[in-house]
Amino acid sequence: TASQAYFGKPASKLTLSESAALAAIIQAPSGFDPDTNQDKLQARYKYVLDGMVQKGWITQAEAKAAKYPKFQKAKSAKNYLAGTNGYLLESVQREMVRRGYSEDDLNVGGFRIVTTFDKNAQAGAVEAVKASGVSDEKGLRIGLTSVKTDTGEVIAMYGGTDYLKNQLSNADQAVGLAGSTFKPFALAAAFEDGIELDSTWDGSSPRTIRGYKLKNEGNVSYGNISLLTATEKSVNTVFVDMAGKVGVEKVKESAIRAGVPANTVGLGADPTTVLGTASPTTMDMAGAYATFANRGERVAPTTIKEIARGGTVEYELSPTKQRAFDTEIADEVNYALQKVVTNGTGYAATGIGRPAAGKTGTTDNNKSAWFVGYTPQVATAVMLVKQDSKGNAISLYGTGGGGSVHGADYPAHIWTDYMSVAMSDMDTEDFQGSNDYGNDYYNYSRPSSPSSKPSSSSSGSSGSSGGSGSPSAKPSGSASASGSASGSASSKPKPTVKPTP
Question: Which pTM was predicted?
Fold first, then answer.
């Protein structure tokens, strides 16, 4: 805890001056570092004491008598915020502000907060990213957010390698073009409009649709295919055509209902919106896909279970569910996205050995790569983006010494490594629902060897898997995440043939 890190004692044993100093530091740990910014910290410390007097929590005499405390070695205090810890703390503080607590409240402190983070899952997230072998590459940002689908509890977040070096969280602050991970929102809108998965569409490439010149990944032309196949293979021309016929406003509205914030950068109302021109966070996307896993009921992600102050519980988590889609619509999306995992670009996710659904996402200029997937219990989003020294988005090309990066590469494998750990103590559950095509929706057939996938077809070009939609092998790296769970996977060779997004 922070009290242990700075003073070597539990919060219950802190003196008045130590409590005030701790409240001052937590507001901006780097800015008020007792080792490097003593003057600023002392000024903030006095501000906190004055605030406690104004609130009536202490008297002026008590504030005057409080002596500025002695701290443990700065190294010990910094370790408390090092790695991913600082990102978790900052996310909780931002949520407290959203829940109505003022800056003065946070500065004065005195809170006891129970968070939603799971120790095993959080360790799994850190190890899964580390196992990718690329987390330390210059300019690369990897973000991960994982939520319980029925309560919205955030059980793990990966905001970056070290909060002390970069305070912008890759989990709930940094954004990236969503790419094809936006296609499920178009599916939901299409199902609501009466369009079915076995309907036939023109998957030719290139095509000009409503004035937009479009092509599929690698310019692969599929001809006439079903909507289900177009989902499995992530066929751009079909989805833009479908979005135009359903209505782009309906697609946008579907995304917002699922949980994508209405003010998301790039969330427009044109046919290409379905290709992911919006730039959400991993928390946004994990929460939105959780709506499908939860059979159409939306629960907002949260990092806080309980807030208490002065022995009084001021807030206790009681998830509010909002119906975003009819159950049948969500079930249909779940079915289609399970097929993406078992038959399409998300095959790496079969490695968790239980029913899973998800969608890969990659942008044409390779400035982002995503995998957002879920089981009935947990939804997790993984994003890779890259920036130059000025903070401008640049291509992921060359990451890990390879070529283009797709959602089926690092993102899907990080997701799989993480979920294998996070769900190790959870029961295996099947998705619910049935379809109109003569078979049960979720007759899940587990692969006999999840870690081995048939090689991609060589008929594609420019990073495409051609008609097969098969993802590549896992990018090279160290052993997969194990956290506190047993077992780790061996590293796999770098991909030579890239999948569709």
Answer: 0.78
State how far the alpha carbon of 232 is from the alpha carbons of 31, 236, 422, in Å. 48, 11, 26
What pLDDT sits at residue 483?
32
What letter would DSSP give residue 444?
A: -
CA distances from 297 to 187, 243, 290, 294, 467 (A): 17, 23, 8, 6, 35
Sign of CA dihedral 256, 260, 263, 266: negative
In this structure, the strands spanning 368-374 and 154-158 are unpaired
Exposure string over 159-176, b if 16+ CB within 10 A, otherwise e: bbbbbbeebebbbbbbbb
Residues (pLDDT < 70) of the chain are 1, 27, 73-79, 434-501
Paired sense of beta strands 111-115 and 200-202, if any = unpaired
- Contact (CB, 8 A) for 448 and 463: no
Residues 365-390 as b or e (16 or more Cβ within 10 Å = b): ebbbbbbbbbbbbbbbbbbbbbeeee
Interatomic CA distance for residues 354 and 440, integer angstroms: 16
User: What pLDDT does residue 78 have?
Assistant: 59
In the chain, what are the domain boundaries? 8-114, 122-422
The amino acid sitting at 392 is N
- pLDDT, position 71: 86
- CATH homologous superfamily of 122-422 equals DD-peptidase/beta-lactamase superfamily (3.40.710.10)
The residues pairing with 434 across neighbouring beta strands, listed in sequence order, are: none
Contact 386, 370 (CB under 8 A): no
The DSSP code for 18 is: H
Alpha helices, DSSP H, located in 305-358: 327-343
What pLDDT sits at residue 245? 95
**For residue range 108-155, what is the model confidence (pLDDT) as tens digits?**
777 899 999 999 999 999 999 999 999 999 999 999 999 999 999 999
**Residues 6+ positions from 123 with CB-CB distance below 8 Å:** 421, 483, 484
